[in-house]
């Protein structure tokens, strides 16, 4: 790298680092709750731990400028001596969920992407439900929220992308997976947007974390990466619908570079392809386009087909022509309704 490029990238890194990015934390003091007749709200932090009732009292408000090291439920609970309280709450909450869905037929789980807050995600979840034919007694809807961070700055968005990549993996491995493990013998439909696809894949199979991220998780947040619970074979049928999936080939591979073998419970991965989604193309020729985590599964047909050739469960709908990456625009696209029809979810 020549001196000019070195100076440029150094200044760019400093500028991105200085941009304010905040954690996506709940607005409610009872964020993990059940709303009758058929909605479950599940809210996890950057490491996949579930926010307990009255969480601000013990855990406080996170710093305004979020980093991977300084704030998490398990970090504070462990270092303050009430880890058992957090674990007890999570166990009780998950058991309550298991009991709640025991007699349900279908579970529909919504998973948002990065740079979202609670209200924006809830609005999109509610809008998607208006297109669905849901039985209040037989179907349960899970609104899943995770710490994909948030910012209003365009350069802050780059920082969000870099940091939230790991957050999405841990939210899936330690958060969404525990929800899936609480469900038995059901049809499960997971509708994700953008980097929410990483949350889904990480719930199904352990993600590959860098040595640095493993060290941060274990040293700063007291997570047991080695002894985490695997996805249980609970006799479910899992259907993954990925809207604008911001993932790439590496997300489907293990630490040896070999394509992962997913649970036989996974029946379908139905994704969208959109060659005009500016975000998935990362500006196509943008300065960061090759330096951020790959998003080609939702952008490049060749990548989608290469991955699909490894599995007999991938299908896709072409959304090319839609320029927006926003969740709401994917939901409001008539092609989303067509996808719902394929899975017998549409009105």
TrEMBL record:
Signal peptide per UniProt: 1-23
InterPro entries cross-referenced by the UniProt entry: DUF900_hydrolase
Keyword entries, A-Z: Hydrolase, Signal
A molecular-function term among this protein's GO annotations: hydrolase activity
Source taxon at top rank: Bacteria
Record Pfam families: DUF900
Keyword Signal (UniProt): yes
Protein name, per record: Alpha/beta hydrolase
The organism's taxonomic lineage, starting at the top: Bacteria, Pseudomonadati, Bacteroidota, Flavobacteriia, Flavobacteriales
């Amino acid at each position: 790298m020549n001196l000019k490029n070195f100076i440029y990238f150094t200044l760019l890194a400093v500028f991105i680092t200085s941009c304010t990015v905040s954690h996506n934390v709940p607005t409610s003091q009872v964020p993990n709750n059940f709303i009758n007749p058929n909605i479950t709200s599940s809210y996890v932090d950057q490491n996949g731990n579930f926010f307990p009732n009255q969480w601000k009292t013990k855990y406080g408000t996170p710093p305004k400028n979020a980093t991977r090291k300084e704030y998490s439920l398990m970090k504070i609970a462990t270092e303050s001596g009430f880890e058992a309280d957090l674990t007890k709450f999570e166990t009780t909450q998950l058991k309550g969920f298991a009991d709640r869905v025991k007699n349900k037929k279908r579970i529909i789980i919504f998973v948002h992407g990065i740079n979202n807050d609670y209200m924006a995600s809830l609005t999109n979840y509610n809008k998607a439900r208006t297109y669905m034919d849901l039985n209040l007694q037989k179907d349960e809807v899970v609104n899943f929220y995770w710490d994909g961070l948030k910012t209003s700055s365009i350069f802050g968005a780059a920082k969000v992308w870099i940091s939230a990549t790991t957050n999405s993996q841990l939210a899936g491995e330690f958060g969404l997976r525990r929800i899936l493990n609480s469900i038995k013998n059901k049809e499960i439909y997971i509708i994700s947007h953008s980097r929410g696809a990483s949350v889904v894949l990480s719930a199904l199979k352990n993600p590959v974390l860098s040595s640095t991220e493993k060290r941060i998780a274990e040293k700063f947040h007291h997570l047991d990466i080695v002894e985490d619970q695997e996805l249980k074979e609970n006799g479910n049928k899992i259907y993954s619908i990925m809207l604008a999936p911001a993932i790439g080939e590496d997300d489907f591979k293990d630490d040896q570079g070999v394509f992962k073998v997913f649970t036989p419970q996974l029946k379908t991965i139905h994704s969208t392809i959109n060659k005009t989604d500016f975000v998935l193309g990362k500006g196509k020729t943008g300065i960061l386009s090759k330096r951020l985590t790959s998003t080609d599964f939702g952008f490049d047909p060749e990548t989608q087909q290469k991955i699909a050739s490894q599995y007999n469960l991938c299908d896709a709908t072409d959304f090319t022509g839609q320029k927006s990456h926003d969740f709401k625009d994917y939901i409001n696209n008539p092609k989303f309704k067509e996808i719902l029809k394929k899975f017998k979810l549409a009105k």
